[in-house]
């Protein structure tokens, strides 16, 4: 049996899906987290269940709503499991009235019972069940109540086959039935209504006689046809609500009261700034750097121990160097930052599950509207603080094509987790007294650049209007420890996997290019290595913002193209080769990186922050933008922007001496 899990955004679909199947999909408290449909088997049964992206109605607007819509209409679904947020009954039932018309058996899982209870909302399930002629099970996906009942209903086929219950008024029903009689195929009632409404997707089937009936209806009701249908649905839902829902407490909810402050016209932006600053301060400031010292101490010990072992085993000098100076130095440099990432991911994940993230989108909407973006673009930007790849993919929720393309091109500007090592390395060394401030400043720099670029793009490249932003603000929730933990775990795992694969491989390549001269002589000084010659070819490009023709910094920055983590790890390997001491902050004391000043350090961070993203996100941009040429344009735009900004930062700050 095939069960489709359908419901509004944030109704708890993914939470329920995970409970029913025992799998761990990502849960987030905003629209756009579930992008593609996920499949699984309901425990103890042989029913397949599909977690479809959220939708508000069967008049799909966005790409992901279309996924759900197509699935319901064109796959052989045996049962629709319609999940409803009991605290948002009215809005949710709109979709239900449409689903019922598909003539597919439907079970309602009335979720968030816990919230409804604490708010004193009393719902008469039997009455709704009787009126809609469906089966209702009251559950709380979060507190895991009612889940077994739900599984039982599905397993034992104990659900009504919902012969359609009439929601429209008599005149309308009569016409509707006549239209139904004229069409054949699946979902007749649904199709008939779509034809009456004038949905373009069904225009082909509209015969002269059907059209005649439509015109008659329009006359009777004296309104547009789609308006009649919508009005009828709401009229019915309101009647149902009045009969079935009793709310005992009428005081304002906690969510309302918190929103009075957090969404206040004047306070919202400052509070947001303080929160983001706090997050970066904790992750990259004194506390975060302590963890780095700790881990790098451990890695050093490990490196010393391994070095002794290798000598003991009689390893040849070059293999000893490959392991210690290449692999351990390169991979270790990246692993240093894991604790900081854990802090950053945890805090962002907490913001996500509490519902604050959705608010950010809401109040930044006003600012974004002015530059051709909307609050919807903010979702990719926020996801982008973890990794640009899923962030770029989440831009699919944006229905306006122009806005979507702009968002995809701007998302990589957000400092992702792989850029954090660069930021903390440079900020920690050159601005040790204000690391948190400098790190946070880059974040706000990124937002400013995004807004400015969007403004310029809209003025000169894309012209058009902005899509309407209709995100639901979810209720505030206490962060759920298990989900935060899992979210952080998955992100850290992805980071470590990257370190164990791409960075490991790149470290070996870099070691090789550093150890051999152009005539393949082993053990030359770094200045004579193959890598240094490659770097020299490009070093003039970086000169304007480094103030030095540095082959070492140039090759490191170029490697950011493969993966941003590689910038730091390559610097560590090169420094290791060029330095006598191998303890302490060796990178900036090494002969090749000595030239860095606070100004060039900041400029270098800016360049890496904005330049073309890693291979992974370039691939994602290509996929989402559709054309290879658009992808190249995006990469060119990003890298050009990075170069210009870095050069401006360096030149201006050396001129007036702000960063010194
Ligand atoms: P989806 O967008 O429909 O997939 O919804 P999710 O499964 O991602 O859930 C959205 C939010 O609602 C998450 O923060 C969940 O923890 C929360 N949630 C889900 N079910 C319940 C419930 O029964 N009670 C409460 N209080 N919160 C819930
Ligand atoms: Mg979901």
Could you characterize what this model shows?
The chain is 62% helix and 6% strand. β4, α3 and β5 (106-111) form a beta-alpha-beta unit. The model has no long low-confidence stretch (mean pLDDT 84). It has 29 helices and eight strands. α27 packs antiparallel against α29 (628-656). The strands form two sheets. It has a six-stranded mixed β-sheet, with helices on both faces. The structure holds guanosine-5'-diphosphate and magnesium ion (MG). Guanosine-5'-diphosphate binds next to α1 and α4.
Query: How many distinct helices?
Result: 29
- Which residues form runs of ≥5 with pLDDT under 50? none
SS elements, strand count: 8
Quaternary status of these chains? single chain
Radius of gyration: 29 Å
Helical content band: 55-70%
Give the overall shape. Answer: elongated
**Order of strands in the sheet with most strands:** 2-3-1-4-5-7
Q: Work out the strand percent.
A: 5-15%
The ligands bound in this entry are:
guanosine-5'-diphosphate, magnesium ion
Average pLDDT, to the nearest integer?
A: 84
Decide which structural class fits the backbone.
mainly alpha
Key terms for this structure?
elongated, binds guanosine-5'-diphosphate, 29 helices, six-stranded mixed β-sheet, 6% strand, 660 residues, mainly alpha, 62% helix, binds magnesium ion, two-stranded antiparallel ribbon
